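Response to reviewer comment R2.3. The reviewers asked that we include at least one raw input/output pair. We reproduce the pair for Enhancer of rudimentary homolog here without editing.
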Amino acid sequence: MANHNSRHTIILLQNSPNRATRTFMDYDSIGQAMDGICGLYERKLKEINPSLRNLSYDIADLYNFIDGLADMSALVYEHSMNAYLPYDRLWIKQKAFSHLKRLANGSR
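Raw output as returned:
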């Protein structure tokens, strides 16, 4: 069975109702994809508060960011099926939560 961490993951997102804001990011694993989503949010926080040195936010702030996007979904490679499976915003939020929990507990 393939390791959960080695599943190629594509995050599809649209920042605003304008379809021209559609983009995607791809990662080697679900964990890296969650890091990427957190990084997106952190860059947005820095844009809003450029003088802030230390960023801190909680899971509710990250959820609001994800919910505030016009669209966000994930495609995760499933080795056994040799195909990408689609996952919705709720799945992304659940994965982001467990990912941040692991980081908070110090296991990278």
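The radius of gyration is 14 Å. The helical segments are 30-48, 59-68, 89-104. Further pairs are available on request from the corresponding author.
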